[in-house]
Fold:
Amino acid sequence: MGFLDRLLGRGKKTAGEMTGDSSMKSEGMHQEQQGMAEDRAETAEGMAQAEREKAAEHQAERDS
Structure:
């Protein structure tokens, strides 16, 4: 969803700039920022999952 929110937000922001609609521009900026935050959170979760798997492998090696 992050990519879609970034894309839609950028579109709203641009449309707001072109029409002079400050509320649409602001909404677009916030939606774009939300999408970027979702992407960062997804990346961090992926890294955390990889570390959990690595830790589980090390634990399995120690136990055997």
About this structure: The mean pLDDT is 95.
